[in-house]
């Protein structure tokens, strides 16, 4: 059984940073909650500096969301492989995330409310 997914507007302004650079800032971000997993912030692609992202060959499938495509973040010192993902054609139940990107957070990538 698939966990219930809820999508709502993320309150406030959100940023994503990697390699010392701000990749994007948005007041139109979405928060996706799925079961007991930590919520994930999705940024509109229009609010992300896509010049820092390269398409990846990596793909995955989620039965609740559809097929995900991945992007690597290119910084001055290194490339963060498959650090962001997007559902280009999500299933209808989560269609609000179409055209949005999410990021894996770690010591090199930060997603923060500002």
Automatic annotation (TrEMBL):
Residues 15-105 form the DUF427 domain. It comes from the Bacteria. Gene3D superfamilies: Domain of unknown function (DUF427). PANTHER family: BLR5716 PROTEIN, DUF427 DOMAIN PROTEIN (AFU_ORTHOLOGUE AFUA_3G02220). This is DUF427 domain-containing protein. It comes from Shimia litoralis.
């Amino acid at each position: 059984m698939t966990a219930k997914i809820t999508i709502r507007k993320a309150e406030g302004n959100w940023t994503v940073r990697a390699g010392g650079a701000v990749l994007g800032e948005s007041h139109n971000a979405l928060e996706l909650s799925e079961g007991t997993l930590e919520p994930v912030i999705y940024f509109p692609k229009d609010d992300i500096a896509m010049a820092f992202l390269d398409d990846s060959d990596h793909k995955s499938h989620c039965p609740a969301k559809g097929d995900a495509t991945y992007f690597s973040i290119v910084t001055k010192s290194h490339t963060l492989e498959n650090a962001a993902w997007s559902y280009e054609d999500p299933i209808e139940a989560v269609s609000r995330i179409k055209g949005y990107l999410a990021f894996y957070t770690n010591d090199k990538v930060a997603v923060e409310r500002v």
